[in-house]
Amino acid sequence: MYVCSCFGITEQQVKKHADDGACTPRQIASACKAGTDCGGCVRRIQALLGRGDCKRGELLKARTESTGTPVGTPSLFGTTPDVRLSDAA
């Protein structure tokens, strides 16, 4: 079934991108453009992604627990850790 009729993206394609690590509609859009035209499919993409099912979220939590500092928190020296947009969930 199509999720994004603007770009012909199916549920299967969205799920594949999610399995590959996309956790947010923005990351899905980056992978396949779904949700970037009319935006009518964004809620469906959110539903397909679910809440809290993101592997990346688990990785970020583990990193926070191991370092004691949440990702993106400024250090005492005025710099922030090297965080890419793709790391933010």
Radius of gyration: 15 Å
The number of helical elements comes to 4
End-to-end Cα distance, whole Å, is 26 Å
Q: The biggest beta sheet, please?
A: 2 strands, antiparallel
What do you see in this structure?
This protein is mostly helical and 89 residues long. Helices cover 43% and strands 6% of the residues. The chain has four helices and two strands. It has helices at residues 11-19, 25-32, 42-49, 55-67; strands at 2-4, 9-10. It has a two-stranded antiparallel ribbon. A hairpin with a 4-residue loop joins β1 and β2 (9-10). The longest helix has 13 residues, at 55-67.
Short description:
Helix content is about 45%, strand content about 5%. The protein is mainly alpha-helical and about 90 residues long. A two-stranded antiparallel ribbon has the order 1-2.
Spell out the blueprint of helices and strands.
Elements: E1 2-4, E2 9-10, H1 11-19, H2 25-32, H3 42-49, H4 55-67
Antiparallel strand pairs: 1-2
